[in-house]
Amino acid sequence: MSLDLDKRQRAMLREMGVRLWQPPPVVASPDVPPAIDSVAADAHPARAEGSFDAEPQRPTPAPAPAVRPPAAAPAPAARMPAAPAPGLAPRPAGIELMAWPALQAAVAGCRACALCTSRKNTVFGVGPAAADAAPAVDWLIVGEAPGENEDIAGEPFVGQAGRLLDNMLLAMHLQRGNDDATRAGVARNVFITNVLKCRPPANRNPDPAEVAQCAPYLKRQVELLQPKVILALGKFAAQSLLQDSVPDVQKIPLGKLRGQVHSYLGVPVVVSYHPAYLLRSLGDKAKAWDDLCLAMSVAPTVVRSA
Ligand code: URA
Prior knowledge:
The chain has helices at residues 7-16, 38-42, 100-108, 115-118, 148-153, 160-171, 208-225, 235-242, 254-257, 275-280, 285-298; strands at 139-143, 190-194, 229-233, 262-264, 267-272. The chain is α/β, with parallel strands linked by helices and 306 residues long. The chain has a domain at 95-298: Uracil-DNA glycosylase-like domain (Uracil-DNA Glycosylase, subunit E). The chain has a 5-stranded mixed beta sheet. The longest helix is centred in the last third of the chain and has 18 residues, at 208-225. The structure holds uracil. Uracil is lined by residues 44, 143-147, 150, 156-157, 161, 194, 276.
């Protein structure tokens, strides 16, 4: 794919730390070895260790766990609560049939896991305003979970990693939906969300039961948004979206999931590094740009009016 970059986009790419002298390849290259393993490559700074499998099972009630159980030994019985923690309730029924406003309300009121007891706000996602319907977008960006800033703001990716994500989007002619000014030639054609809609305390890794509780919300978002491409940022997004289509995805380093087009509910999925990881691993920004180019080859940006 050839990219016709104007001065502003070149500046964006410089901001991302991407060198401009070499058009990136867009063809899948399964032989490209990952520079780093999955744990180091995409973990949130404050979530530097752990994985789905390594994370110990939280002693929270989980009415309908759907993901594989973690390999870790169960918590000692003495630490298990005798009864469900107060304040929790099953996920609302019928998520798979909900319209956008009902889905938003269901997330806002969700008390299906213990994260509801520590969150300040749920973080449903951000995209162009749309009355009573899912916004019309071609792109869906999926991150891991809200952090402290997102928990306060009720919006995904508003911290430092979010600024880098915004620059990555601008390099693709995309702009998050709630900015005041629309830049010329830039489309509000993207919805940004996370695997988890609530912040894990102290920014720890999401645990499998939490991911399972939140998965129907993300699934319904995808069904209603019908994006042309999903960009999965980081290990948790990749594992969550690909667990039904990539065998043993938890064991595959993130670097090996890059460079190919996967699928979730029939929607193409491109995996890349988490922006928080890129903030401290500048050398991999060029690889992230390769991933964005691959995603753009799947879903050429269409400028939609604000
Ligand atoms: N990291 C994420 O994965 N999501 C956010 O919303 C913020 C930081």
